[in-house]
Amino acid sequence: MRGLVLALLLAAVEGRAEPPEEESPWFVPDHAALQLAGSIGLLSAGPGWGFLRDGVDAELLLGWAPPAVAGEDFLTVTLKGQWHPFRPAWRGWTLRPLTVGLLLSYTFGDAYFVGLPDRYPDGYYWFKTALRPALLLGAGAGRPVPALGLRLQGYAELVATDYRLLHFLQSPATAGTGLFSLALGVRVRF
Q1: Between 20 and 30 A from 12 (CA), which of 23, 32, 97, 171?
Q2: 43, 64 in Cβ contact below 8 A?
Q3: DSSP code per residue over the chain
């Protein structure tokens, strides 16, 4: 009986020719993202972390928009989380036909505020112009690049900020006037 138990235990142990790679600590990013538009600046970039076998992503992005696009020069910092419930593989590609997520961005500058400035009467603004939560819906696809030891993923997302969603709920006829902004991006997974 002892021999059978020992044989089963040995069969369960995975044999390796070399020692296993140590996993990086949780705070070390496993990918980088570069995004165009999407209500967080014309161009945003930053580190990201994949969880649950890359079924969930978290990213910290720094975004910038020039005056020619946004009317003024501004910077944003965004915390973004996405869930990819389906990740089928097809001919070497990993598809992400559905991505849902949330983001929270903060815009720097004197024109933006979290607390209502003294120059406005109480109740003038009900929302915080510097802090923008948003919902996102998207899709993407990726493919390994063995020569570089990386995986590249492209994605597209529709982003709706709290202000735009509330405006739409108050007046649904405004749906065609910019409920969503489009984000296009790429992730490089290490």
Answers
A1: 23
A2: yes
A3: -HHHHHHHHHHHSPP-SSPPPPPPPTTS-SEEEEEEESSS-SEEEEEEEEETTTTEEEEEEEEEE-HHHHSS-EEEEEEEEEE-----EETTEEEEEEEEEEEEEEE-STT--SSPPTTS-TTS-SS-SSEEEEEEEEEEEEEEETTTTEEEEEEEEEEEEHHHHHHHHH-GGGGGGTS-EEEEEEEEE-
163-173 pLDDT, tens digit each: 888 878 888 77
> Which residues partner with 156 through β-bridges?
139, 184
Amino acid at 23: E
pLDDT 10s digits, 113-142: 777 777 777 777 777 778 889 999 999 999
Res 53: pLDDT: 85
For residue 24, give the amino acid letter: S
Tokens of 178: 């910019």
Q: How many CB atoms lie within 10 A of CB 40?
A: 28
pLDDT averaged over every residue in the chain = 84
Phi then psi dihedrals of residue 115, to 5 deg: -105, 140
Please give the Cα distance from 158 to 181 (Å, whole number): 6
> How many angstroms separate the CA atoms of 104 and 154, rounded?
22
